[in-house]
Amino acid sequence: MVKITELLFDCDNTLVLSEELAFEACAELANKILESKGIPDRYTGPQLLVDFVGQNFRGMMVSLQKKFGFTMGDAEFENYVKEEENQVIKTLKAKAQPCVGVTPELEKLAASKKYGMAVVSSSALRRVIASLEKVDQMKFFPPDHIFSAATSLEKPTSKPDPAIYLHACKVIGVKPEECIAIEDSKSGATSAVRAGIHVVGYVGSYDGFEKQAEITKVLEEVGAKVIMKEWSEFDACLKKIEES
């Protein structure tokens, strides 16, 4: 049997319904950047979500530069990162909601005291904290166990790089094989798997059976051990991994 001691939760669209809100907010900025570079292509929020789900804005900008063949200096890049962060946080503070059914599960887990709990996100730390505060979930996580690939590392990165998961395990003081990560995206699940962490794939934030089936296949292909459609299934998913 596997001995699990720590649960590592992705934030966006796993704990908090924030991806669509965030991508709506940053589509305007992405289009501003493309226009400034003389590139005619434009994105809507949903189009960005399809192309870059699970990546933070840094990762998205690196991908856009490669895709459209333009470059940005470090100062320009960092200015856009800060502008995007501020725009998204403003939107999240106004509109973010918890993922359906997650809060009761967090309450049960916290009451049981069986597992440590942490948040491991690609998003900037200010954005993660704004999301968790808006939906009253900060109380479930120690402040120093909220990790951001964009902020917590000496060199900022983004999932699918496993660096943020490895960093979280080191800070918490657990081995990757003692952890379960809950992830909703290919990049997030890949990050955790590459770090040697068991993954529960969550598809409940995706609309419709066909989309959920598509994402289920993607998550299984990158190594998710169990797929969860609703948060009410989490206890059974946890037991399945522990008993494997």
Characteristic key phrases:
globular; 10 helices; alpha/beta; 244 residues; six-stranded parallel β-sheet; 50% helix
Q: What do these coordinates show?
A:
It contains 10 helices and 8 strands. The protein is globular, with a radius of gyration of 17 Å. The protein starts with 5 loop residues before the first strand and ends with a helix. It is an alpha/beta fold.
User: In whole angstroms, how far apart are the ends?
Assistant: 6 Å
Shape: globular
Low-confidence stretches: none
Give the total of beta strands: 8
Q: Give the count of helical stretches.
A: 10
Radius of gyration: 17 Å
Q: For the residues shown, what is the average pLDDT?
A: 94
- SS class: alpha/beta
Order of H and E elements: EEHHHHEHEHEHEHEHEH
Main beta-sheet annotation: 6 strands, parallel
DSSP helix fraction: 40-55%
TL;DR of this structure?
This protein is an alpha/beta fold. It has 10 helices and 8 strands.
Question: In terms of topology, how is this protein built?
Answer:
Blueprint: E1 6-9, E2 16-17, H1 19-36, H2 45-52, H3 57-68, H4 74-95, E3 97-98, H5 102-112, E4 116-121, H6 125-134, E5 146-148, H7 163-172, E6 179-183, H8 186-194, E7 198-202, H9 209-222, E8 226-228, H10 234-242
Parallel strand pairs: 1-4, 1-6, 4-5, 6-7, 7-8
Antiparallel strand pairs: 2-3
Helix pairs in contact: 1-2, 1-4, 4-6, 8-9
